[in-house]
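Module 6 notes. Inverse folding takes a fixed backbone as the condition and produces residue identities as the prediction. Think of it as a translation problem where the source language is geometry and the target language is the twenty amino acids. Below is one complete input and output pair. Work through it position by position during the lab.
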């Protein structure tokens, strides 16, 4: 990991194996870094990439710990640790599920909702930045190509 941007050190471009997965991964990592730099600039300096792996699965009505774990394909204990870290930092709350007293519901706190709102604005500005760089036609072509890749790879999973 490099210290300055909390991402794996990929070395030089010539060190990478040439395949579409590497290209997609590098583009996505660049998007993530840009997003989290802006998150920090908006006052959420303590939010990291691993935090987003939990936050993305919590909707407006909250989510059960076990459901977050299932969607992430990790253990409930792994999710529990990350959730408790976010609770300590004030982004999430844990409540007993009124439908199942044994289960816990994870919800955004006021600070967590402010982060979600900030992320909406950041994602919108990044979209505009990419759209301006590509232009409407190339952006539409990119979306079509990404859909094609996703559909092709999903066919192999069934």
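Target side of the pair, the amino acids:
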């Amino acid at each position: 990991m490099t210290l300055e941007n909390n991402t794996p050190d990929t070395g030089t471009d010539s060190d990478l194996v040439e395949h579409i997965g590497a290209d997609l991964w590098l583009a996505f990592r660049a998007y993530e870094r840009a997003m989290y730099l802006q998150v920090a600039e908006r006052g959420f300096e303590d939010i990291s990439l691993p935090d987003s792996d939990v936050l993305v699965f919590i909707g407006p009505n909250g989510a059960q710990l076990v459901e977050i774990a299932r969607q992430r394909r990790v253990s409930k204990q792994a999710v529990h640790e990350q959730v408790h870290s976010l609770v300590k930092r004030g982004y999430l709350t844990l409540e007993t599920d009124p439908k199942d007293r044994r289960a816990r519901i994870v919800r955004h706190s006021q600070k967590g909702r402010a982060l979600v709102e900030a992320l909406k604005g950041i994602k919108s500005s990044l979209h505009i930045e990419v759209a301006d760089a590509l232009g409407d036609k190339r952006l539409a072509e990119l979306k079509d190509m990404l859909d094609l890749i996703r559909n092709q790879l999903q066919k192999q999973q069934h």
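Reference fact for the lab report: The beta strands are 63-64, 92-97, 100-108.
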